[in-house]
Amino acid sequence: MTMNTQGRPTSPVSAANQSVDTVSGSKGLLQAEGLIFEIGTQDTTGVDLPTPKNRTGRLGGVARKQPTGLPGLSEPQTVRHYMRLSQKNYAIDLGLFPLGSCTMKHNPRLNEKLARLPGFADIHPLQPQATVQGALELIDELATWLKTLTGMPAVAMSPKAGAHGEFCGMMAIRQALVARGEAEARKRVLVPASAHGTNPATAVQCGFIVDEIKANARGRVDMESLKAKLEKTDDIAGIMLTNPNTCGLFETDIKEIADLIHAAGGYFYCDGANFNAIVGRVRPGDLGVDAMHINLHKTFSTPHGGGGPGSGPTVLSDALAPYAPVPFVVKDEDGVFRLVEDMEGDAKESFGRMVAFHGQMGMFVRALTYMLSHGADGLKQASEDAVLNANYIQARLKSVMTPAFEGYCMHEALFSDAFTADGIETIDIAKSLIDEGYHPMTMYFPLVVHGAMLIEPTESESKAELDRFCDSLESIARRAAQGDETLKGAPYLAPMRRLDETQAARKPVLKWTQPDANSVAAE
Fold it and tell me: Which stretches make up the Aminotransferase class V domain (predicted)?
């Protein structure tokens, strides 16, 4: 019987047989690797060059007089060091990345290829606009797609991340209130309890006061709580709401919420982090949204995670369009594209400039390539498949895990820890998933669900891969329900065992210190 048909047990007999110590520290093909300081030595270099003769330094009194303290490595040592480190990372190209509310989807290689075209990759932000007409046209066409998909009349392309896009939308709201002469009076922004943490942070950054709205038993905005907040309307600036929300649910009262906020004199900011669930199915503009950022690095397939480049264009309603930031692209009657960079003419009411240059060109190319290669019907199908995959996971696991809310979900399935035995925590399930070869899903978020586990499979995963993931998680869930104490020692198969995460967060060791030679010798 082959290994593929035989499989392997997922329940360890004991903790002892899960961890195999080796002389080298390596485990099979997973090589042990120390810090770069521990590998190299400070008194050697990878390349030895003779001291130049008959030459004097040109640095004068600023020439280095002490060693840099950096290790010297040969080329093979350097290559192996970073290759071994890369093997300790999890990536979307390695397996299913179930992080909820993050949309970690496959990045088509076609997008990467086009982003590296010299005409896009090699241009300089200070080039004359006449020499970058193709890039400006691409930005304009991408903007047209974004406006069409959202049903919004305007879009600011310069924000460079999701939170930056939030900032853009809230600054536009603030500028609209300034234009109305109500900026000082209207300071209150309503934010649901399940919101992303960036929402209240952005509101505060823009000078607003955050007022939290409760969630109801269905995981959505509690309308009675909202209406109570609106009994006093003269200080309402707006609302920041994610839809679908962070519980993976569509806000069924969204239109009424928009109407209530507008009647109170405020504006409706929608967090677009979960736009991947509704592209081609719902246009936010039709729901009464005034501003919404769009994560190109989530919804439209750009490398996401690990601090990679992002892009967060923000679509705006007619009420906020005049206050969009500069610069923005316009097409003159002669067909020439140009950037409007000064706050005059069409931009006289703009809230100003957010960044030195206009957006993130590599992200724009990738996003438009994704749109053109999928087409309108393909984008709609991708969203439908993302919702289908999430509901499949929820259906597969609801017999052994506890769904946070009844009914169907949208693009992500949310579970609570109610099924676990006493003594077994959510973190134990997360660490055990590492032994199964998976990055854990989003844990303990949203905060409105106790021991939350938020899973977003996206449309990228096949049924076979979803089953493989569900089989692993189902096994762990059964052990958690039975109170299997071996879960508390996981992970056993990772390069590093479980750390004291509280101490690591409070007292991180951020600097390598040369060990004392005498104490090492004594040991």
Answer: 183-305
Residue 475's φ and ψ, nearest 5 degrees, are: -60, -45
Exposure string of 124-150, with b = 16+ CB inside 10 Å and e = fewer, is eeeeeeeebeebbebbeebbebbbebb
Angle, helices 162-179/198-205, rounded to nearest 10 degrees = 40
Confidence of residue 405 (pLDDT cuts 50, 70, 90): very high
Q: How far apart are CA 416 and CA 439, in angstroms?
A: 18
Domain covering 110-370, topology: Aspartate Aminotransferase; domain 2 (3.40.640)
DSSP lists the bridge partners of residue 40 as none
Average pLDDT over the chain, rounded to an integer: 90
Whole-angstrom distance, CA of residue 487 vs CA of residue 361: 46
Decide if 446 contacts 454 (C-beta within 8 A): yes
Helix axes 361-397, 463-481, angle to 10 degrees: 50
pLDDT at 66 over 90: no
Domain ranges (residues) in the chain:
110-370, 380-494
Residue with tokens 């590492």: 434
Q: Which CATH code is given to the segment(s) 380-494?
A: 3.90.1150.10
Cα 304 to Cα 456: distance, rounded to the nearest angstrom = 14
